[in-house]
Amino acid sequence: MIVTITNFQLSTPLTSDEAKSIFLTTAPNYRGVKGLHRKSYIVADDGNSVGGIYLWNSRAEAEAVFTESWRAYVREKYHSEPSVTYFESPVTVDNVSHEIVSDA
């Protein structure tokens, strides 16, 4: 599996409630995305940084989302250049489904 972390530095800090309101407008866009297991929206304690943590089947499926079009959308919405960092995740502990998932 692949974990990606996106991050956008903001020029004006957001409160947690403001961030939640914005995130709820984009969350439906991620339903049913091929290869995406889960996305968690994140906001730093100081409100100066927001982003997401994603769990994917594969890097190729993640890269299919983080295109130049996606970057342009983020730049327009958040007035910030997004960063995307990729990590391999060979083992995931899921306490909701009570599973430990490992790459085959």
Order of helices and strands: EHEEHHEEE
Strand order of the largest sheet: 2-3-1-4
Q: Which ranges are low-confidence, i.e. pLDDT below 50, for 5 or more consecutive residues?
A: none
CATH class: Alpha Beta
Count of discrete alpha- or pi-helical segments spanning 4 or more residues: 3
Taking Cα atoms only, what radius of gyration do you get, to the nearest Å?
A: 14 Å
Question: Distance between the terminal alpha carbons, to the nearest Å?
Answer: 10 Å
Category by helix and strand content? alpha+beta
Strand content: 35-45%
The proportion of residues forming helix, as a percent range, comes to 25-40%
Task: Average the pLDDT over all residues and give the rounded result.
Answer: 94
Shape, per Cα inertia axes: globular
**Total number of distinct structural domains:** 1
| Annotation, overall tally of beta strands | 6
Question: Largest sheet at a glance?
Answer: 4 strands, antiparallel
CATH architecture: 2-Layer Sandwich
CATH topology: Alpha-Beta Plaits
Structural notes for this entry:
The termini are close together. This protein has 3 helices and 6 strands; from the N terminus they run βαββααβββ. The protein is α+β, with helices and mostly antiparallel strands. The radius of gyration is 14 Å and the shape is globular. The protein has a single domain, classed as Alpha-Beta Plaits. Strands 2-3-1-4 form a 4-stranded antiparallel beta sheet. Strands 5-6 form a two-stranded antiparallel sheet.
Summarize the SSE layout with pairings.
Blueprint: E1 2-9, H1 16-26, E2 36-43, E3 49-56, H2 59-63, H3 68-78, E4 83-88, E5 91-94, E6 99-102
Antiparallel strand pairs: 1-3, 1-4, 2-3, 5-6
